[in-house]
Amino acid sequence: MKAADRTADEFEAHRRHLRAIAYRMLGSRAEAEDAVQDAWLRWHAADRAQVENAQAFLSTTVTRLCLDRLKSAQAQREVYVGAWLPEPVVDDDTQYQPGPETLHELAHDLSFAFMLTLERLSPLERAAFLLHDVFDMSFGEVASALGRSAAACRQLAARARSNVHANRPAVKVAPDEETRLAQAFVGAIRDGDVNALARVLAEDATFISDGGGRVTAVPQPLFGRERIATVLIGFARHYHPEKHRMRPARINGLAGCVISTVDGELIQTMALEADGCGRIRAIYVMRNPDKLRMVQP
């Protein structure tokens, strides 16, 4: 095998793992792909004879690249129009999941609740938590990646861990229950039935819509089932079966749907988070066309 082929094969063996780290660090599939591609360039130029652990080397490289990107991303978020949501991953796209050898439950969690919690952490807290708690790197390796002491990295990860566990749903909902709720939700929307929709929602339900200033969207989160039901039924009047189509999909691991025109123009994704008590606790709608480029109608 040629040396160039061997170099590429070694990198490809870790690409999925690197995508998983980068997406959770950045919340953007496009930026994650760019970070992984830059990591490939660093790998190609590296003296690999000096690399003892390829996965640790590449994880460190992609994490540092993500931290650099987060510096500019934070400035952009400060002027972001309306609510911010991570770029959706549709139909359980495995390229943003680590390999099956990664057993930690959080490593396979792409839910909006988890991603939004990561977004509220500082970049260093996010990196320390992901590398150690989620992707099983030792604190010595994390310290090397972040340029901090192992003790400092333990503190960063501990603060992050506290935030993550405080914001995680207490109950894991079975896929069949999620599908049942999604069907009831869609049925109420199509029937224009405010009361039926409100019955599907938790009393303290949340609705978040991201248009990024590019398209119309609810500018701030909505709270409470009656208000959300009324607003959604109002929006539903613009949905016409002869002009639009709604296909069921898994959005960041949640039951939901992709809405497009019959001509194939993507309008939005909608993900529904169940509360474990037979109700929908959160609705996440992505309308920003910049974040829908990798979604199939």
Automatic annotation (TrEMBL):
Q: Where is the RNA polymerase sigma-70 region domain?
A: 11-74
- Write out the GO biological process terms: DNA-templated transcription initiation
* Record-level Gene Ontology MF annotations: DNA binding; sigma factor activity
Task: Read off the Gene3D superfamilies from this record.
Answer: 1.10.1740.10, 3.10.450.50, Winged helix-like DNA-binding domain superfamily/Winged helix DNA-binding domain (1.10.10.10)
Q: Which InterPro entries match?
A: ECF_Sigma-70_Domain (IPR052704), NTF2-like_dom_sf (IPR032710), RNA_pol_sigma-70_dom (IPR014284), RNA_pol_sigma-70_ECF (IPR014303), RNA_pol_sigma70_r2 (IPR007627), RNA_pol_sigma70_r4_t2 (IPR013249), RNA_pol_sigma_r2 (IPR013325), RNA_pol_sigma_r3/r4-like (IPR013324)
Organism superkingdom: Bacteria
Report the leader peptide range.
none
- Note the SUPFAM superfamilies from the entry: NTF2-like (SSF54427), Sigma2 domain of RNA polymerase sigma factors (SSF88946), Sigma3 and sigma4 domains of RNA polymerase sigma factors (SSF88659)
- Cited NCBIfam families: PRK09636.1, sigma70-ECF, SigX4
- Name-wise, this protein is RNA polymerase sigma factor SigJ
Q: Which organism is it from?
A: Noviherbaspirillum autotrophicum
Q: What is the lineage of its organism?
A: Bacteria, Pseudomonadati, Pseudomonadota, Betaproteobacteria, Burkholderiales
